[in-house]
């Protein structure tokens, strides 16, 4: 009998690709999404890829009563992958209470329900933002968690602490926090991809929207950093690799291979690429010349961040396989698909 998994925020960028990966491995998936930063059209994209329509419930996880009723209805959930959260750094600085309510109350309500479920398995969508500007590169899971630069980053740190504390007092509850570096790319079918609402907060959708003519030019925030070409360095991981990591992590929890009931893993490629390298690679992958200008530094940007992936490779048994070139090519294919749909 197939295992049943709840994916919160399952119509979002990483969530939708993970739903596809779960389907491909035989899991039964139920999606919760309030559509605040996603589109119902994504459900159609998932269905076209997998030939199977996942069960979907439009719900706001801040509604504690609705969360309780959901788990009464779905008492046979084997695992939860929790993506649902607000994630724009700049907006979190302007609206901190919105971020604390949305990102923490929803987590707490889910954990309160799962804590009563013996053998519950929980995967938390965390972020390398918890490290801030790390003292050493590449960044290992043992790197100190720095004071957060934004309320968004703080919700990821506090979220991990809440989960860790829950695991300490409930030995039957098992959880893994996955600290992503920079997810990019799209499904090779171009049926799903990153679909930012309004102005993109991330580099790659800004690049693709500029290349297709939606935006006049790309702004590169600073070229005077102490890096090889003066621009910020990040670890860009293909969303397809990231999605597979969630399936591997869920298998680990369900099969009880973990030594402790709470673990943390970095998910990245282990390679850092500068903003200018990403632009150059995009041009090589697509044959499109990209207009850009250098502007002043952006507040809150760290100089460089890329993962030490040894723990994920050895302990989790997962490794990123797709390249920056692959990811940018797929992101461009997706952007053109979006344009064609109007």
Mind explaining what this structure looks like?
The protein has 342 residues and is α/β, with parallel strands linked by helices. It has a domain at 4-185 and 236-269: 3-Layer(aba) Sandwich (Rossmann fold). The chain has helices at 13-24, 41-50, 64-73, 89-94, 96-114, 151-169, 203-212, 239-254, 275-286, 310-316, 324-341; strands at residues 4-8, 28-33, 55-58, 79-82, 121-127, 174-180, 182-184, 218-221, 233-234, 236-238, 262-267, 273-274, 292-295, 304-305. Strands 3-2-1-4-5-6-11 form a seven-stranded parallel sheet, sandwiched between helices. A three-stranded mixed sheet has the order 12-9-14. Strand 1, helix 1 and strand 2 form a beta-alpha-beta unit.
Short summary of the structure?
This is UDP-glucose 4-epimerase. Its cofactor is NAD(+). This protein is an alpha/beta fold and 342 residues long.
Question: Care to count the β-strands?
Answer: 14
Shape: globular
- Any low-confidence stretches, pLDDT <50, length ≥5? none
H/E topology pattern: EHEHEHEHHEHEEHEEEHEEHEEHH
State the CATH superfamily name of the domain at 4-185 and 236-269. NAD(P)-binding Rossmann-like Domain
Radius of gyration: 19 Å
Instruction: For the largest sheet, list the strands in their spatial order.
Output: 3-2-1-4-5-6-11
CATH class (first level) name of the domain at 4-185 and 236-269: Alpha Beta
Rounded mean pLDDT score: 95
**How far is it from the N-terminal to the C-terminal residue, by CA?**
41 Å
Broad structural category:
alpha/beta
Strand content: 15-25%
Number of contiguous helices: 11
CATH-derived architecture of the domain at 4-185 and 236-269: 3-Layer(aba) Sandwich
The helix fraction, in percent, is 40-55%
CATH topology of the domain at 4-185 and 236-269: Rossmann fold
Q: Oligomeric form of this entry?
A: single chain
Outline the biggest β-sheet.
7 strands, parallel
Enzyme class: isomerase
EC number: 5.1.3.2
Pfam family, one: GDP_Man_Dehyd
Pathway: Carbohydrate metabolism; galactose metabolism
């Amino acid at each position: 009998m197939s295992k049943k998994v709840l994916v919160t925020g399952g119509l979002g960028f990483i969530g939708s690709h993970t739903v596809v990966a779960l389907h491909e491995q035989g899991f039964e998936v139920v999606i919760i999404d309030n559509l605040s930063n996603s589109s119902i059209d994504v459900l159609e994209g998932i269905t076209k890829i997998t030939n199977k329509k996942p069960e979907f419930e439009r719900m706001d996880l801040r509604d504690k009563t609705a969360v309780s009723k959901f788990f009464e209805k779905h008492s046979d959930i084997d695992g939860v992958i929790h993506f649902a959260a607000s994630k724009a750094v700049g907006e979190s600085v302007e609206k901190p209470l919105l971020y604390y309510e949305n990102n923490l109350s929803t987590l707490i309500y889910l954990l309160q329900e799962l804590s009563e479920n013996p053998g519950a398995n929980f995967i938390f969508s965390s972020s390398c933002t918890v490290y801030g500007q790390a003292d050493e590169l590449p960044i290992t899971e043992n790197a100190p968690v720095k004071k957060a630069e934004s309320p968004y980053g703080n919700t990821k740190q506090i979220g991990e602490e809440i989960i860790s504390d829950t695991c300490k007092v409930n030995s039957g509850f098992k959880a893994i926090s996955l600290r992503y570096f920079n997810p990019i790319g799209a499904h090779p079918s171009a049926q799903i991809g990153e679909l930012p609402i309004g102005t993109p907060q991330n580099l790659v959708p800004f690049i693709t929207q500029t290349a297709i003519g939606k935006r006049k030019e790309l702004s590169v925030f600073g070229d005077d950093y102490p890096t090889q070409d003066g621009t910020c360095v990040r670890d860009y991981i293909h969303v397809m690799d990231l999605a597979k990591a969630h399936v591997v992590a869920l298998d680990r929890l369900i099969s009880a291979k973990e030594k402790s009931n709470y673990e943390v893993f970095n998910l990245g490629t282990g390679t850092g690429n500068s903003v200018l390298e990403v632009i150059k690679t995009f041009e090589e992958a697509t044959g499109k010349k990209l207009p850009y200008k250098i502007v002043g530094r952006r507040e809150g940007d760290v100089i460089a961040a890329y993962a030490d992936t040894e723990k994920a490779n050895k302990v989790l048994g997962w490794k990123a396989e797709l390249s920056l070139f692959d990811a940018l090519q797929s992101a461009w294919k997706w952007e053109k698909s979006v344009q064609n749909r109007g």
